[in-house]
Design brief:
With about 160 residues, the protein is mostly helical. It has two domains: about 55 residues, no CATH class; about 60 residues, no CATH class. The protein is about 75% helix and about 0% strand. Helix 1 packs across helix 2 and helix 5 crosses helix 6. The longest helix has 24 residues. This is Holin family protein. Keywords: Membrane, Transmembrane, Transmembrane helix. It comes from Cypionkella sinensis. Pfam families: GTA_holin_3TM (PF11351).
């Protein structure tokens, strides 16, 4: 732009022409910077709204009961599976009869059970993954990175201060 501006002796016109070209280009290709800014604003608003839901979190008796019930399925599944092995050892004939009954369960019902269990444990794992502690470096003792020398950048800065 520097050469064109000096040839035409109209640096303001060249800047206006560049701005016009940028405006026309944004009609066909949206600005990536603007898209990222809007995405960040939307995410900040969503996080603020999500945070507002937990400002007055109460620990009533009902909340404690539901939290306790939410902790039951994993131990019940684990101990229930071990209990099946014990049951098979104690009364093999009755255990075999019960397994024949399980064999009569239709396949779509097994798929439904698998989906329920998978979503339960998947949601639980996702909850703990999202709420894991973030280890940030200490600010007081953190070293400030020193920028390396860049001769091209120094030359450019020198031309900017001269002109």
């Amino acid at each position: 732009m520097g050469l064109i501006g000096s040839v035409l002796n109209a640096p303001g016109a060249v800047a206006a022409l560049g701005d016009a070209a940028k405006g026309v280009a944004e009609v066909f290709v949206p600005s990536a910077t603007k898209r990222m800014e809007l995405s960040a604003q939307a995410q900040e608003a969503a996080l603020a709204q999500f945070g507002d839901e937990f400002v007055n979190a109460s620990a009533s008796g009902f909340d404690r009961l539901v939290n306790g019930l939410n902790r039951l399925p994993r131990p019940l599944l684990a101990f229930g599976t071990i209990g099946l092995f014990v049951y098979a050892m104690i009364d093999p004939a009755d255990f075999a009869l019960r397994m024949v009954g399980l064999n009569a369960v239709p396949e779509p019902l097994w798929w439904l059970l698998g989906a329920v269990v998978a979503f339960y444990f998947g949601a639980r794992e996702t909850h703990y993954f999202r709420n894991r502690p973030v280890n940030l470096p200490a600010v007081a003792g953190a070293a400030v990175p020193v920028a390396e020398a860049n001769p091209a950048l120094d030359d450019w800065r020198a031309t900017q201060t001269e002109g």
